From TrEMBL:
Annotated GO biological process: fatty acid biosynthetic process; lipid oxidation; oxylipin biosynthetic process
Keyword tags: Chloroplast, Dioxygenase, Fatty acid biosynthesis, Fatty acid metabolism, Iron, Lipid biosynthesis, Lipid metabolism, Metal-binding, Oxidoreductase, Oxylipin biosynthesis, Plastid, Transit peptide
Residue ranges crossing the lipid bilayer per the database entry: none
One GO CC term, this protein: chloroplast
Names of required cofactors: Fe cation
Organism: Zingiber officinale
Protein name (record): linoleate 13S-lipoxygenase
Amino acid sequence: MVQGDPASRHMNPSIPFVRFRYDWLIHPTMLKQAALQPSLAFFPRRPVLSAGSNSAVLPFGNRRRQNGNSNKVRCAAAADESSAAGMEPPTLLTATKRPATVKAVVTVLMTVGGVFAHVGITRGLDDFGDLFGRSLRLELVGATLDPQTESEKKTVSAFAHKTKTGVESITYEATFSVPPNFGEIGAVAVRNEHHEEMFLKDIVLTIDGDDSAPLVFSCRSWLHSKFDDPQDRVFFTSNKSYLPSETPSGLQRLRQRELEILRGDGTGQRKKFERIYDYDVYNDLGNPDSDSALARPVLGGSVAHPYPRRCRTGRPPTHSGISSNTLLHRTLLRDGSLRCFSDPKSEQRSGNVYVPRDESFSAVKQVTFSAKTVRSVMHALLPSLETAMVDARMGFPYFTAIDKLFDEGVALPPHDSMHAFRTIVPRLVKALAAGAQNLLQFEVPEMIDRDKFSWFRDEEFSRQTLAGLNPLSIQLVTEFPFVSKLDPSIYGSPESLITAELIEREIKGIMAFKEALEQKKLFILDYHDLLLPFVHKIRELEDSTLYASRTLFFLTPEGTLRPIAIELTRPASPKKPQWRQVFTPSWDATGAWLWRLAKVHVVAHDAGYHQLVSHWLRTHCCMEPYIIAGNRQLSQMHPIYRLMHPYFRYTMEINALARVYLVNANGIIEQTFAPGKYSLELCSAAYGQQWRFDMEALPADLIRRGMAVEDPEAEHGLRLTIEDYPYAQDGLLIWSAVEQWVADYVGHYYSSPADIAADSELQSWWTEVRTKGHADKQNEPWWPSIDSQDDLVRVLTTIIWVASGHHAAVNFGQYQFGGYFPNRPSTARTNMPVEDASDSDLAKFRAKPEAELLRCFPSKIQATLVMAILDVLSSHAPDEEYLGKEAEAAWEKDPVIHAAFERFNGRLREIEGIIDGRNADSTLMNRCGAGIVPYQLLKPYSEPGVTGMGVPNSISI
Ligand SMILES: [Fe+2]
């Protein structure tokens, strides 16, 4: 142990320390619904969460700050605990006249790839360093400036020595002699003298043997080796969070420096140990260096292909420049040879994609589950499957052949990694008794287990638009007749063939068309204008076809939806005229089979839209800019950074994996979904046409789709157009609970709009989200500004909702609904038999329509690829972090925040019970009935594995 190794630091002007304020007050009149702009600013009334509290926290749309002290109702969190607990959380202060003894206990977690994990040439050196106690050097940093010199105080440093080696962690300890009047300790700088990185869990300081009020530094962070980067790593105390203006004087320079490190300078190729967060366009999806057919356009940065930004990795450009928007990359030289130029707009691909070190979860125990499983399945299992099924186009000859996937499985060729598969994905890969052969055998999805034929029926088809995997597309019909907004000179007649007469005929005397429209009984899945421009391109791909589609539903008196018409359209082309036809449920054999085939096309459209837009784009992809900007602009001591961090965890890593295996050229999505190589271009088109931040808030999304209207008398301030709409009903419970938690938290740290405006880091974060992360939409008028507590609560609630509830609703039911692929085929491969059909085609269809249906379904290999990947993506890791379950260290250190979090936790447990109650209510026919899988996707908690429930904090799979 070495003591007394002070190092001087530079001077910095002192800014007076401002303490927390707990006087954020709310006027009772704020309980009333504020008249807000209907489209964007709707935020419903929130229920009082804690029984016995008379201090209802108000919906942020209704909250206004009251000047003066009369009639004040305190923030629920602040009112209850601040006075009892004292205004200051405990801090470690050495204000004695004699030196104080400070003890530091450092906990390092065992990891797969860290310093204690492997035997290598450096391991001996590191053990040697540990033996002599010189492998971890800590430096205590004073929170305040020296009052005499107004410069930073001299730090106090010591080496830590290893004291305990446990199964999961190793403990180091250091003792410091801290000079008199050192004051508060605000940060610890740590240097890792090992040759390998280590994963730091936390550092706990106590003074003079008193461990009643320790100073905690919750790290959960990779500590790089000094041989990779000589710069020390700084951790700020978790005991307190500071707005920029409140930063203790002695920490101001460090706060700035840390942010500068995290931002980097925008140059160079990123190294694994770095923590730099920066932006780039999606220019690494293609792989033209391996095959010119794998060139893909750059997404983001152009009018043609708008897209959110991803994390910059700085990999070198590709050599074959045809992958990008630049046109000429090869030049014919005088000697006749072609010279290749690198393409500055397109990036080479690599297996291990850089993500900032602390975004990577791949080496921490347990949380490795998701990444390991995803990697294993994508890297080796799927190629094995391709080997086992030689004919890529072969479909299933009979329905019984589909059943065999579950009963008998698919024999896989021997592979070195099979043993690992059986360990990691036991649900999928099973060993035969002899042990030599492996089987890919699927579990029967719950919906098929309950009702084998439910997928075939109309009522299940329409029920799943409200309680299935993609409940985000169904919308109220507000305008009729349907008219395309696309150019008729290119695409043909814009008017739909669905007429009022046709609708009346299908409603069959229940009510007149006009009445149905006025009484909000007509709903639509509209995949017309988004898909139509892609139809011809996709039809040129091998083994694929596409239509644009409109599917119309009627809301029955029972509150369920009945599909009444499907319109499929092929636009005009130079060779052929426009082709359109409306299909309806029929009572003749040919009509009934055509209706079934039309449904296959619509479900394939919905499955593609779900995966590319509702899931990948709106959750995974759009979240990344918030995370990048948050780390670049919000200090790790900023309260909003500390609020949002658990909702950002692991997302960048899973997105990097998706770019390698899922959404890349010839990746799983392109191989299995109808749009093929145009999949991500379609995704970009949806981003350009449909995505807006303000509409990502659940209430605003429901209102936009006509699925709800504002109603101050209704629960959550919203009246649902279809009362029994399980996604909306349960989603609003989660939304409101999150909103209350965020309002409590924000109210604790900001007492006025002026505080919000003055928060330079917060404002920089939000500006950067818009101007850099979503740069292609930066000039859109709908971006909210953050001028008040209400604005901030609205923005943060929206982001947390997308990461938690929205993602859970579209992610964890993927196997449940897609595991039996006829229920959600990823592609429909053949045209309708009546499109430009020859007599022989029609005769073939009439002779055996079931064969036509099987030919239309995905091929055998497409179906099994999708089923395998959906099984993995639907799975919860053993140590999944669920919404509102565990408090962050910084939240626990503040009694007011801790109490608010406890209320959040309590409310989520209540919600579990409410959802169970709804699923048992036989009047709610869209979630309770014969053979129906109850709607549990928004139940907050779950066991590990594929359960069809559970709302994690963040997007990690
Ligand atoms: Fe996901």
